[in-house]
Write a structure and sequence with these properties.
With 83 residues, the protein is mainly α. The protein is built from two helices and no strands.
Length: 83
């Protein structure tokens, strides 16, 4: 092969190597992004469970307050008072 042919092959190899390096870096960046998103999803799931639990406790507390308060009693008790 001539010198110019060898230079062309080397240049082509260099272009391929640069493209492979670019693709590898892009894959690595996407992997890191996926890891970050996965960690975020886990954190949001955890927070969601915590908030659901807190909502249940608050709901029960409100029910207890309503059942203990005369304002929220049935109208039957009011009608009995009038008789």
């Amino acid at each position: 092969m001539m010198n110019s042919d060898m230079d062309a092959v080397e240049a082509e190899n260099q272009v391929e190597l640069e493209e492979k390096t670019r693709l590898i870096n892009q894959v690595l960046e996407l992997q890191h992004t996926l890891e970050d998103l996965s960690a975020r999803v886990d954190a949001v799931k955890e927070e969601n469970l915590k908030l659901k639990s807190e909502n249940q406790v608050l709901g029960q507390y409100i029910e207890n307050l309503m059942s203990a308060s005369s304002v929220f009693q049935t109208t039957d008790t009011k009608s009995k008072r009038k008789e």
